[in-house]
Write a structure and sequence with these properties.
Blueprint: H1 3-12, H2 66-69, E1 88-98, E2 101-112, E3 118-122, H3 124-129, E4 135-144, E5 147-153, H4 160-163, E6 169-176, E7 179-186, E8 189-197
Antiparallel strand pairs: 1-2, 1-8, 2-3, 3-4, 4-5, 5-6, 6-7, 7-8
Length: 199
C-alpha cells in the first residue's frame, strides 16, 4: 500500500479522476462558448484578436495552471545538522493508515550523514503506485532530547502536492545505539515502526 499516493489521491478528490486516463483533459482556456443558432450567420467570420505575450494559449491544458497551484517547495527555512548519534542508514518496516486505509510492513530506509542538514527518505512501497512517491529529502529541523525532527520534501509525481506543502513530518527517536522509533505524520494519515541502524 502506498501511503503518500493514497493521501494525494484522496486529497485531490474529484480532480484525481482527471488523471486516471493518462493525463489531464485539455482545457480550452481562451475560447468562448456562444449559443448555437439555427439561422446562418449574417456576418463573415473574423480572425481572433492576437493575445498579448504571457497569456495562456487556448487548449493549453491544466498543466498551464499547475505553477499557480503550487504551494512552495515544502523545504523548511531553518534546519540543523544531523548529530553523530543519528548518522547512518536506518532500515525497518512501518504500519499505518492513509485516508482510512490501513497498510502494514511497508519498508522504509533513512540515510543520514553527520553534520549535514538533509538526508534521504526511501519507501519502495510508495514507489509502486507512483515512482515519484518513493524517494524524498529529509530536512532536519529540531533536536529534542533523543528525538530528531524532520520535514519530508522533494517528493515527485502526485506526492509532490503533499510533500511540497511542508506538512509531512518525520521523527526518529533513539532507543539505543542501533534502534529508533520512526513516526511519519501527513495530512489524513500516519505511519510508525522501529528502524535499525545498519550502517
Amino acid at each position: 500500500m502506498a501511503a503518500l499516493a493514497v493521501v494525494v489521491a484522496l486529497a485531490g478528490g474529484g480532480g484525481t479522476l482527471l488523471w486516471l486516463n493518462g493525463g489531464p483533459p485539455a482545457l480550452n482556456l481562451g475560447s468562448t462558448v456562444t449559443p448555437s443558432s439555427t439561422e446562418p450567420a449574417t456576418e463573415p467570420a473574423t480572425e481572433p484578436a492576437t493575445e498579448p505575450a504571457g497569456t495562456p494559449s487556448p487548449g493549453g491544458g491544466i498543466t498551464d495552471l499547475l505553477p499557480e497551484l503550487s504551494v512552495g517547495t515544502g523545504r523548511p527555512t531553518d534546519t540543523i545538522d544531523v548529530p553523530a548519534e543519528f548518522a547512518g542508514t536506518w532500515k525497518g518496516t512501518v504500519d499505518g493508515e492513509a485516508g482510512g486505509t490501513r497498510f502494514e510492513d511497508e519498508s522504509v530506509t533513512l540515510v543520514l550523514r553527520e553534520g549535514e542538514p538533509t538526508g534521504v527518505w526511501d519507501s519502495p512501497g510508495d514507489a509502486e503506485s507512483d515512482p515519484g512517491c518513493g524517494k524524498g529529502t529529509l530536512y532536519a529541523t529540531e533536536l529534542k532530547d533523543s528525538t530528531l525532527h524532520f520535514t519530508l520534501s522533494d517528493l515527485g509525481g502526485v506526492c509532490a502536492y503533499v510533500g511540497n506543502t511542508g506538512s509531512v513530518k518525520v521523527t526518529l527517536e533513539l532507543k539505543d545505539d542501533d534502534k529508533a522509533d520512526y513516526d511519519l505524520t501527513m495530512p489524513m494519515g500516519n505511519s510508525e515502526g522501529e528502524l535499525t541502524k545498519t550502517g
